[in-house]
Structure formats: C-alpha cells, structure tokens
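Take a specimen:
=====
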Amino acid sequence: MKGITYRITGLMFLLIAATVLGLTSLANWQMSNRFEDYLITSYEHGQMMGHVGMGLPEHSFLSSVHQALIWVGLVILIVGLAASYVLARGITIPLLKLNAAVQEIAKGNYSQRVTASSDDEVGQLANAFNRMAEALEANNLLRRQLLADIAHELRTPLAVVQGNLEGMLDGVIHSDKEQLGSLHEETVHLGHLISDLRDLSLAEAGQLSLDKNLTDIDQIISRAVNMLRPLADEKNIAMEYLPQPAPLIEVDAGRISQVLYNLMTNAIRYTPETGRISLTTGLVSEGGQEWLKVSVCDSGAGIDPSDLPYIFDHFYRADKSRARKSGGSGIGLSIVKQLVESHGGRVNVESKLGEGSCFTIYLPVAPTTDDRPRKTDG
C-alpha cells in the first residue's frame, strides 16, 4: 500500500542517501584530484619559499572544499524543498477538497462526494467520507419519507373522525350506535398507531423499558395462537403450532407477545383462503451462544426479492397501492425488529414468490445453572 507514512519515509531516505552520496563523492573527488594537486603545488611552493606551512595552496584547497560543500548543500536544500512541496500538495489538495465537501454536508447538501485519487490514507479517508455522505443522504430521504408517512397515517383516521363529527353537528349524520362505534374504531386505531410510534422511537433510542422475567415461550405462543385462531378460521387457514422442549428465557412477556401477534397477524393477512400457517420453536447454537428460535411460516404469495432488504423499514409496503385496512400501518415489522433487538436477539426473513414467507426470531438463552429452572416436557 502506498501509504503516506511510506512516502514520507522514502522521501527522507532519499534525501539522506543523496546527502551521503554527494558528500562521499565530493570527498573522493577532492582527495583523488584536488589533494594531489595540492601536494604537488605545496611541495614546489615550499621549496621556492624555503618553508612548508599554511600558504596559498592550503587556502585554495580549503576554499574549494567549502565551495563544494556549499553547492551540495544548496542542491540538497532545493531538491528537498521541491520534494516537500510536491508531497504537501499531494496531501493538502485532497484534504482541501474534503474540507469543502464537509462544509457542504454541514449546510445540508448531502449529495457531496469527493474523488479518491489514491489508495493511501487520504484515499481511504475520501472513501469513508463518501460512504458517510451516502448514509446521511439515505437517512435524510428516509426521515422525510417517515414524516410524510406518519402524517398520512394520522391524517386518515383524523379526517374520518372530523368528517363524521362535523356531519353530526350539522345534522347530516345521525349519531346512532353504529356511527359512534365506527368513530370509536377509528380513535382506537389512532391510539394504537401513536402507541406503536412511541414504542418504536423508544426502542430505536435504546430507552424502551423491559420488564424481563423467566418465561415459558410455549405459553406465550399458545396464548397468541388461541387468540388469533378465529381470524384464521374465517379464511379457512390451518394454523398449527409445533412446540419443542425449550428452556425458560428471560424476556418481557408482553413485548414478545406483541412481536408474535404482529408476525401472526401479517401471516393471516397475506395467506389466501385454505392456506396454512405453522409456528415452530427450537434451540440453535452459534458463536458459543445458545439461541431460542421461533419461526412463523405461511403459504402466502411471498415477498419479491427486491423488497426483502427493506421489509423492516418504517412504513415500507411492498404493494405501494395497498390500502390501510388491507395492509396495516406499515410499522408492524419495524416494531418486531426493534423489540427483538432490544432483547439482544435478531429477526430474519426468508421468502419465495408464490410459496410463502418465513419470519424467524432468535432470542438469547442465558447460561443455565443448577438453581435456574428449565422447562420440562411434563
């Protein structure tokens, strides 16, 4: 890798090597040529003057050495200055461009990108900046879309309630029990939506409080299955639960029930009549950690592969034309993901068009001790 460290080290090495080579060459040349001339001239001059000492030849020799050293020093100084300038330009120009792009990012222009012209540390910094800018731009678009989706989801029930109440005040709509029941249904939906948004925001901020206790996951699943079986029976959907022996896990039973309820409700909604929904549990070990796996699988239409990466995003809907009553609010799977991750787990999805989908949650199982109860088959 052509790193800046290696470039600076190489430059200094070249300068030192050039200095040593220059001085060595100068000394060899002085000793082999100039000094020989000095000896001859000194001998002849000494015979003529009758003494040998520091005369004109000595001064001439020293002057030539000093001049040669000065020229070598000046050449090395100029070469070093030029090399330092080129190196500095190679570092500062990309940094100046990066700084200008950072200033634009600070102003909210998230489309800024810089060109990585090298593979050194500056190039790596430019690539990291580009990835950060792309993430900020994507998050900004998601934030805008989220605000628009929230406004849409809140506006629909509020418009229904407002329209009906105005009709009642004007005497156009009779305030009978059926009409009041419809208004109550809309307000309940609105309350659930606001509650879900609050839970989602708290979970994403890591501030969602969990009341964890040792819990039998079989009881939670069985309760959810019994509660939702009438909805499945209305569509002649066969719902089966295949439990496996599992240890007690430390979770918030209410939150995990909400996770299972959202997954099963989605499965019922998108499974056609005479379809099938199955729930299974099991234990898996990964990376030295034991996990309790809970899968909710259906025989519905499945999810397009292009939609799978976004299926847990806020208000994301694979069918953009789907109505609220047929498709829910669009945050059910987002809540599933955040609640499971708040328990230290994860959620996966596998789906094939025309064959159905399978959502699997993994919850960590704490190490078992002798005084820690485990669920038994009995």
